[in-house]
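step 3/5: co-fold with manganese (II) ion
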Amino acid sequence: MTLLINPERFKQDFDSLAQIGSTGTGGVDRPALSPANIEARKWFLARAFESGLETRVDSAGNHSAVLQSSNPDARTLLLGSHTDSVPMGGRFDGALGLVAALEAVRTVKDAGLSLPVHLEVIDFTDEEGTLVGILGSQAVAGTLSAESLKSPRGGRAKLEEGMARAGLTDDGFLSAKRAPNTLAGYLELHIEQGPRLARSAIKIGVVSGIVGINSFRLRYHGKANHAGTTPMDARTDASLGASAFVLTAREMVARDFPNCVVNVGQMTFKPGAFNIIPGLAELSLEFRSPDPQQLNALEASLLGLANVVGRQWGLILEVERVGHCDPAPMSERAQAAIAAAAESLALTHTTLHSGAGHDAQSLAAITDAGMIFVPSRDGISHSPLEFTEWDDCVNGANVLLRAALKVAES
Ligand code: GLV
Ligand code: MN
Ligand code: MN
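step 4/5: write tokens
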């Protein structure tokens, strides 16, 4: 049977979801467990219920819509993404994959297909890391540590606020693990968020793997002092170490670490006044690599550099590890199903790795996980300017549908 999704229904739902937490400039502001995120999740369950799907929320707050197989002992094929966004983010990141999954499952239901698996559309909690990052999917995979709940990257107070709003608990997060033998796989459609597909005019990306991501808080301790009376050669200025580190780290990664990236996304000086030499500089450091050995080497080089720079400027360096996530290869079986699905629709495709983190990297630890990318205009993402042509979204949703049918039957 040649199944295709309903593009009008898909568009209507995509546009409705984009209204929730709209920035008014084309984007959405729906940080994890914010009132807007909670409203988006309610909208998703309501749409699923209206479509005759069974709805569920697990103890990690993951929201699901299920189309049951006639075999009650069947395994479950998960199709998912997320409704949370980065602050002032785009309307496609996460939302596209979730609405496409909902549309794909409705298409199967409307066609009256009987599949040997349950199909479950899942909206994972806090993919973006406003609180912890890939929180709901790590909970499902059983890889979430109690430590990452105790000192999350967004701060414990913010996490507790979100948990109270959504009625979630630490114990709930730590007991949401699903048994691998109950799962038939995980597929996710997502925008590429980079320029490779758009530049090469290729329609579909078959994701080979997702980068590993490590993050640290670095603190340079200098000496706060009077900015006007302290001679230039007598300052122990923490901002100088921080600035030198950012510039040199960039050069080092560009020169010595192909396929890797480094980012210092926040830098705070304390006490923080026009007329005080910074006594403390705090940096949020994150770096990524698709290869585990290279990620380790990159970490050693960056921390070595942070040390050397600190000594050069007479500062004391304090290093706090915040997050660690290994690179995750996608399953060969899922990649083959996605490539075959693209071919069945006469869509050009290429294999590429993901430079962004995704829930699929958590799921890869417990089941066959695969991702489909569609082009991002100018490679822009995590911005209200994020955009994907609607035809490309429809192509992606059809590839998701057909890849899901292939995985379900295999
Ligand atoms: C999530 O989008 C990430 O890659 O940080
Ligand atoms: Mn995303
Ligand atoms: Mn994102």
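step 5/5: annotate
The mean pLDDT is 97.
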